[in-house]
Amino acid sequence: MPEDASEVRLQEIWTEKYRPRMLDEVVGQTEIVQRLRAIVASGNIPHFLFTGPAGTGKTTCALAMVRELFGGDSWRDNFQELNASDERGIQIVRTKIKNFARAAPLGGAQFKVIFLDEADSLTADAQAALRRTMERYSNTCRFVLSCNYSSRIIPPIQSRCSVLRFAPLKKEEIRSYISRIEEGESVEVTGSGFETLLYVSQGDLRKAVNILQVAASFSKVIDSDNLYESSAMARPEDIGELIELSLNGKFPQARGKLEKLLTEGGLAGEDILTQLHRELFNIPMDDETRVLVLDAIGEADFRLVEGADERIQLEALLARLQLLGGKK
User: Fold this and answer.
1) Within this chain, do residues 182 and 138 fall inside the same structural domain, yes or no?
2) What pLDDT digit, counting tens, does each position of 75-84 carry?
């Protein structure tokens, strides 16, 4: 039995439902959008390397650019999107990418476009093979590479691309996008809720929208409480209190606070360390103490990455902070 149309709409992922389809609809990245529009107007594009943090519009700009470049509903005939994190080896370059690149464009188009997302996940051998493919089939195919860390892309590929660097979105730009969702989904984000959304997302619009959709499933009025429950992040005041309790010699209270974050909050050790690092710069303390605390957080983070037990390392960090506070 077919599902009700309204139920299908409610099940849709908001990040796709409200994704801009054309460059004029893209939120933020004004200078990049202007450059892309000018290039599209010329009817020809170079190879591109889009780099920047997650959720800043790299994929959206690539898709919007291709839609405007080819026009109509047949743009997919000359476009292929691949995610390098799915298939990272040289074989993906030798098969899928090479076969698509060397085929002639359809519908009278001058060239085709391959969008390679998360290109920094490609192995060194795969990137070397990709470099040669880009060079050999540049007459029939253009490449748009997207990555979070341009330093992981080999220099020969970078030199063949026009590099566009995406920055985290600003507060006003996120507010504009969220307002569209509020209107379209009949939800209301309170003032405190929006500030929490900014804190949790850190300029990552995709993350902000996903958290907002989860919070909206509980209530049509979204405040800070809904968002912290949906994001699995600790409140900044709880993290700040954790640091202050340790530095003030109140280890049992600090350990109890940590226990609550790990068990009731369900936070991972690395998530807590990330927030400790973030909140460290919002707590009043002298620079010498701040440097020592930062060094202790970095040491704990390294040990967790190497596979140490997170509870032991976090409690050891609190103990080290108490010793630092005692010396001061």
Assistant:
1) no
2) 888 888 887 6
The CATH number of the domain holding residue 15 is 3.40.50.300
Domain count, the chain: 3
* 108 and 29 co-located in one domain: yes
The whole-angstrom separation of Cα 328 and Cα 197 is 36
Residues 31 and 60 in one domain: yes
Q: Got the DSSP string for 226-295? A: HHHHHHT---HHHHHHHHHHHHTT-HHHHHHHHHHHHHTS---HHHHHHHHHHHHTTS---HHHHHHHHH
Q: What is the pLDDT of residue 88?
A: 67
- In whole angstroms, what is the distance from residue 134 CA to residue 161 CA? 10
Burial class (CB in 10 A: 0-12, 13-18, 19+), 264: exposed
- CA dist 137 and 133 (Å) reads 6
C-alpha neighbours within 13 Å on the C-beta side of residue 252: 0
Give the range of the structural domain holding residue 225, as residue numbers without chain letter. 171-231
pLDDT in tens, 114-152: 998 888 888 888 888 888 888 888 888 999 999 999 899
Cβ neighbors of 148 (< 8 A, separation 6 or more) are 51, 52, 53, 54, 118, 120
